[in-house]
UniProtKB/TrEMBL annotation:
<dbReference type="Pfam" id="PF00294">
    <property type="entry name" value="PfkB"/>
</dbReference>
<keyword id="KW-0808">Transferase</keyword>
<protein>
    <recommendedName>
        <fullName>Carbohydrate kinase PfkB domain-containing protein</fullName>
    </recommendedName>
</protein>
<dbReference type="GO" id="GO:0016301">
    <property type="term" value="F:kinase activity"/>
</dbReference>
<comment type="similarity">
    <text>Belongs to the carbohydrate kinase PfkB family.</text>
</comment>
<keyword id="KW-0418">Kinase</keyword>
<dbReference type="InterPro" id="IPR052700">
    <property type="entry name" value="Carb_kinase_PfkB-like"/>
</dbReference>
<dbReference type="InterPro" id="IPR011611">
    <property type="entry name" value="PfkB_dom"/>
</dbReference>
<dbReference type="InterPro" id="IPR029056">
    <property type="entry name" value="Ribokinase-like"/>
</dbReference>
<feature type="domain" description="Carbohydrate kinase PfkB">
    <location>
        <begin position="88"/>
        <end position="181"/>
    </location>
</feature>
Amino acid sequence: DNPNTYISCGAAPPAGALPCTTLLAGSAVAMPVEQELVCSTVVGLGDPVMDILAHVSHDFLKTVASEPGGCFPVSPEEMAELLKKAGEQSDLKRIPGGSAANVVKALAVISGGSVPCKFVGMVARDDTGDEYRSKLSATGVAPLLLESTSGAPSASALCLVTPDGQRTMRTCLGASLELRAAAQVPPS
């Protein structure tokens, strides 16, 4: 929020600018005005989480959560059951998310596509992983996603929203937790 800092992304660096490749891990980078940053590529590294939004009643929420609000981890089996039940109550809206991916998606939009944006993470070989890859690509971000073969599902976060706007979240990080070493990161 400091008016003396900003990011400038463009094809040709102005005189005195510092050309670079910026690696983001869920946060933005700001440089002082006298050191304008010109991004040649933006890469995010993080958990590829499919955000799933469902509008539900208070009565439904009582059947799946002990109390409204909060965010708690659940097992893959619990998530599958929650998604089944929520899908019977609401059309589910699915959006590729995760902190680092959201930052990279925003940078792809504000650069107008002039800066190559990439995201590195791990998904499962499942429908959610395929959908994540496809939808992330549609936002202008190149997905560099490894595929887990462990049997863990791709990560998902279910956000149950009641009519008063209260959000109750359940997350299953699944395969995203398996990206542990730089040697696993695919070459661009």
